[in-house]
Amino acid sequence: MIKKDELKYDVIVVGAGNAGMVAAATTSKAGLKTLLLEKNNTPGGCAGSFVRGRFEFEPSLHELCSVGTKENPDLIYKIFDELGAKVDWQRDKYLFRSIVKGKDGFDVRIKAGVQGFIDSIEEAVPGSRESLEVLFEIIKLNDEAVAYNDKMKGKPNLLKMVLKYGDFLRSGSHSVNEFMDALGVPKKAQDIINTYWSYLGVPTDELNAFHFFVMCKGYIYEGPVVPMYRSHELAVALIDVLRKNGGELWLNSEVTQFLYNENGKACGVEVNGKKIYAKEIISNVIPNNVYNRSDYKYIPQKAVQLANARDFGLSMMSAYIGLDCSMEELGIKDYTVFVANTPDTRKQFENMQNGALYIVNCLNAIIPDSSPKGTCTLFLTVPALGKDFPKDLQPQDYKKYKSKVLREYLEDFEKVMGIDIFSHIEEIETASPATYARYLGTPEGTAYGYIASDWDNIMARSTANEKPFTIPGLSFCGGHGKMGDGYSSAYSTGQQVGMSVVEKLKGEK
Length: 509
What we know:
Elements: E1 9-14, H1 18-29, E2 34-37, E3 50-52, E4 55-57, H2 75-83, E5 89-91, E6 94-100, E7 106-111, H3 114-124, H4 129-151, H5 158-164, H6 166-171, H7 176-183, H8 187-193, H9 209-220, E8 225-227, H10 230-244, E9 248-250, E10 255-260, E11 266-271, E12 274-283, H11 287-292, H12 301-309, E13 315-323, H13 327-330, E14 336-340, H14 345-350, E15 357-361, E16 376-384, H15 398-417, E17 425-431, H16 433-440, H17 458-463, E18 474-476, H18 487-508
Parallel strand pairs: 1-2, 1-12, 2-9, 6-14, 12-18
Antiparallel strand pairs: 3-4, 5-8, 6-7, 10-11, 11-12, 13-16, 13-17, 14-15, 15-16
Helix pairs in contact: 1-10, 1-18, 3-4, 7-9
């Protein structure tokens, strides 16, 4: 039995990743006594920065979607604005440059904005315009369908859903490829649009069409967005909200045990050898790790089965490079460049280890002074599955392995772009799935939570009956939630879970 003087908090949030920070900021701003726990010595999880020499690097963020503008705010802008978290948002007028090598390849730059997007693809693939205009009409109707469903609290009139929003149901039950085939989008145009698949980590012959186009819309409408001072700015803004509202942040405080009362309700955690109790626990830690730090008699069997049935999403190999020349001197014009050796996303997914796809970002293209004058930085990302990381790799060979793999990608990028990178490298740091596993504490180093595919897609997660998996007093937020991976979805789930806990606790008073 928990004594009254032991119940020091209304809410304990475990993990100061993106979702955890928003959840903690939400509950503290609502007047709930909130404690945010983080195992590392800085908050933010993937949202941070680090310094090597005279360069400050962004560790993971490519770009945010669904931000919008002050005049036309989208979900993320609204979340930060409602919390009072101030961020200096910067945006690019281009979505990406996509280069596919080989006989079926292409090299295209795609503009932001619906009209810019359609015009860019029409220029690359004449005859695409009509089908793309239909696609964006469906995206608009899907937005209306989601708003209607929310208004009806998840219990809409089914006849209205079928008659007025039938395409919403179709996009929610078909793959990206099936959906675009049905609309008559030319194959090459599909290949260009499908460039975005790696941001969700599921090839488009399997990826849920509704999920994909929600993400695409978030980028296309207002363009990709980055914070002026890297994602560290996002973490600072959210922690500031927490503290201004009386919340506490404990760093270097890894939770070693989740605690439950005699009725099976989550009631606290053990951290740094102390037991701390609260009315509600919110976990930004992936369920597998929570269950492994719990007495299994309190975990529903179906919850364990679900966690074990799911596959872990993408991790990555990364290189952070500081160069002693400007991007203009180097010959780089774009913020984001995707390079692939095939337009087929299934082949890209199945051959990630063999150079099928990588992404290079140059932050100077959006924020010119993000590095010292006369310099620039490159961020190389290679999607990878942690389970494919060499199991027999010896510790003494680890650094050599990382360097060899990433050097091959940089050499390929030099060749594709016709530029010289190696003679200008001043600083370089590398990371692998092992790095992400060590820092994030996630199984297989996944930065994407559970892969949102096949039976476990976003629509299946949203419509599933959660009761058999629910542990009283414990909520989950983050990339392993129903909305899948990504900064924007993490902020959204953090807000949703935070508000749900606020409503629950304030309703009990």
